[in-house]
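Re: beginner question about structure tokens

> Can someone show what the tokenized structure looks like for a real chain? I only ever see the sequence side.

Sure, here's an example I had lying around. Input first:
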Amino acid sequence: MAALQLLEERIRKDGKVFPGDVLKVDSFLNHQLDTELLEAVGAEIAARFSGLGVTKVLTTEASGIAIACFVAKYLHCPALFAKKAKTANIADGVWSANAHSYTHNNDYTMVVSKEYLGGHDTVLLTDDFLANGCALRALLEICKKAGAKVVGAGIAIEKEYQGGGNELRAEGLRIESMARIASMDAEDGISFC
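And the corresponding structure tokens:
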């Protein structure tokens, strides 16, 4: 069964819709991890971007890391994640960009060490969710500052109705989402595109 079908079925079965446009999928995607499902999703994203010379898979801390690791496994390159705060173990040389978290409703600064991202890199962005596009925009800004080439973004779940993905597509970013949600609410459930 295709990764897209597996993911949509799992969202229907175990996803929970909460007020405030929150889709809870932490039983398999971003708290407890179904590694077989995530590997299938990662393999599919990698297949869609194969042959483009990807040298790094870049995501955000923390829930994008599992998907990035599986994508990177199949593209035979390192997975790299942007930290949401500069820590003592990162040298002064960092690329940074500000983002707003829809889930946590707060602003933060993403940082990536200049040691691991530069103008020689061809980057595939990945994440567990795409809603309004703030996290992807911050990752794009980091790549631009680093002089890295971005070939696109691979997303597990896109809330298409929130518009971030369509805006980024209109700006020229190739986005491949494994599950695209057209609408969702607690009473009527989830509708896929």
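Each token stands for a local structural state, so reading them left to right follows the chain. The chain has a mean pLDDT of 89.
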